[in-house]
Backbone:
C-alpha cells in the first residue's frame, strides 16, 4: 500500500514516520481497519463477476481461422457429406424401385396422358397436331414448322410392352393416340387411350413457358430414333 503526504504530495511505499521526510511537516496516518466479513464477501463476489465477464468476452470473440484446418474438422465434413450422399442415393434407388414396381398398365396410362398433353401444347404453338409423316417424333425434335417451341417431351419411348405408341391425326377433332396393350394388337379391349381432356392443357402453363432445352441449361436432349407407327 502506498501513502501520500497531504502537504507536498510525496509518495511513500511504506508507512511514513509522523514527520514527512520531504517537507518536515507532521502527518497523521490513519490506522488500517480490518475489513468486515460482509465487505470481504462483497469483494470476492465482485472479483468473480469480473472474471466471468472476461471469460464471456473471450468466448464471444472470432474463431481462430486455423481451427477449421484441423484433421478432425476435415473428417467431420467428409463424414457428413458421405451420410448425405448415401441418403440421396437410397432415396433415388427407392424411387427407381417404386417406378419399376408400377404395373405396366398404369405406366402406359401415365405415358399416353403425358403424350396427349404434349400434343396439346404442340397444337397451341403450331396451330395443328403433327402430321402422319411427322408423327410423335415432332414432340422431341423440330420438324421445321413455324411456331414450334419444343421439345415438349424429353424422349420418345415405346410402351411398357415394347410396342410403339399408335398416333394418327384426324381431319377434325382429336387425334388417335393409344398403346396396344399387353397383346400388342390394335383394336382389342386392352388398348390404352389417354383422357381426352389431356389434349387441351389450357393456357395457365403458357405463363413463363420455355422449351425443354432452355429449362435444362447445359443439358443436350438427344431425341430417340424415329419410330414408325
Residues:
Amino acid at each position: 500500500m502506498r501513502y501520500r503526504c497531504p502537504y507536498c504530495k510525496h509518495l511513500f511505499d511504506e508507512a511514513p514516520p509522523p514527520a514527512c521526510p520531504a517537507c518536515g511537516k507532521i502527518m497523521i496516518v490513519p490506522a488500517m481497519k480490518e475489513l468486515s466479513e460482509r465487505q470481504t464477501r462483497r469483494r470476492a463476489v465482485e472479483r468473480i463477476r469480473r472474471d466471468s465477464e472476461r471469460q464471456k468476452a473471450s468466448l464471444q470473440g472470432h474463431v481462430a481461422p486455423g481451427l477449421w484446418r484441423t484433421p478432425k474438422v476435415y473428417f467431420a465434413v467428409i463424414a457428413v457429406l458421405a451420410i448425405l450422399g448415401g441418403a440421396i442415393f437410397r432415396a433415388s434407388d427407392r424411387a427407381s424401385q417404386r417406378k419399376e414396381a408400377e404395373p405396366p398398365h398404369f405406366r402406359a396410362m401415365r405415358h399416353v396422358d403425358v403424350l396427349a398433353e404434349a400434343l396439346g401444347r404442340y397444337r397451341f404453338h403450331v396451330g395443328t397436331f403433327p402430321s402422319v409423316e411427322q408423327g410423335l417424333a415432332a414432340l422431341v425434335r423440330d420438324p421445321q414448322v413455324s411456331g414450334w417451341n419444343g421439345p415438349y417431351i424429353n424422349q420418345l419411348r415405346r410402351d411398357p410392352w415394347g410396342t410403339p405408341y399408335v398416333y394418327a391425326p384426324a381431319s377434325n377433332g382429336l387425334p388417335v393416340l393409344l398403346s396396344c396393350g399387353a397383346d400388342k394388337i390394335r383394336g382389342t379391349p386392352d388398348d390404352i387411350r389417354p383422357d381426352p381432356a389431356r389434349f387441351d392443357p389450357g393456357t395457365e402453363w403458357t405463363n413463363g413457358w420455355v422449351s425443354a432445352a432452355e429449362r435444362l441449361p447445359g443439358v443436350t436432349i438427344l431425341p430417340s430414333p424415329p419410330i414408325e407407327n
